[in-house]
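Researcher: Next entry in the queue.
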Amino acid sequence: MRDIMGMMGKVKEMQAKMEKMQAEIASLEVEGKSGGGLVTVTMTGKGDLKGVKIDPSLFKEDEIEILEDLIVAAHKDAKDKAEAVMAEKTKEMTAGLPIPPGMKLPF
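Model: Structure for this entry, 107 residues:
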């Protein structure tokens, strides 16, 4: 019976840590860059795009396709950074728990 009570306590503790981590991720802002810094996007840890900065040298009619590709690349860079931060926070929080490899948290 003690094991069940101990396990329930750990579940509550884990739930509180998850809620804290989710709040931290929601408030996280990351920047992604492409084109050597010609395009920069800012997004939240949840993937919401907050802003785009474009170097004025890219405003040429014949380079619109390049600009579009750079925006997509900068967004991917920011998203990858946000996912890396989330993975690291999840790893720290679940250290020592018997979680199967590849299982993503939060569910």
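Model: The longest strand covers residues 29-34.
Researcher: Noted, moving on.
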